[in-house]
């Protein structure tokens, strides 16, 4: 049976890939709005894709899940900071907030803190 943590891992990973691969034009606009460089955008994007890959790989190798989920949570917390910094509306803040909460759930489930 697939547990909720695995579903959360897939949701986070698929969401990251959709945003960073198929909606990249939105990412370019957002990073310009935040005043961040192209290099920063590239590093963040590559990091998120690697972490998403590790979350999926973690379905078969659970020892790979904790660090990527915590790092993804940190990146989503950073996204929240930048959304607040430029005073984006709540509609733009909700996706990264949702992925932050899912990433924290994955970490907590990996540590057996929750079911």
TrEMBL record:
It is a multi-pass membrane protein. The chain crosses the membrane at residues 6-22, 43-61, 67-84, 96-114. It comes from the Bacteria. Its main location: membrane. It is found in: Membrane. The keyword Membrane applies. The keyword Metal-binding does not apply. Coiled coil: none annotated. Keywords: Membrane, Transmembrane, Transmembrane helix. InterPro entries: DoxX. One of its GO terms (cellular component) is membrane. This is DoxX-like family protein.
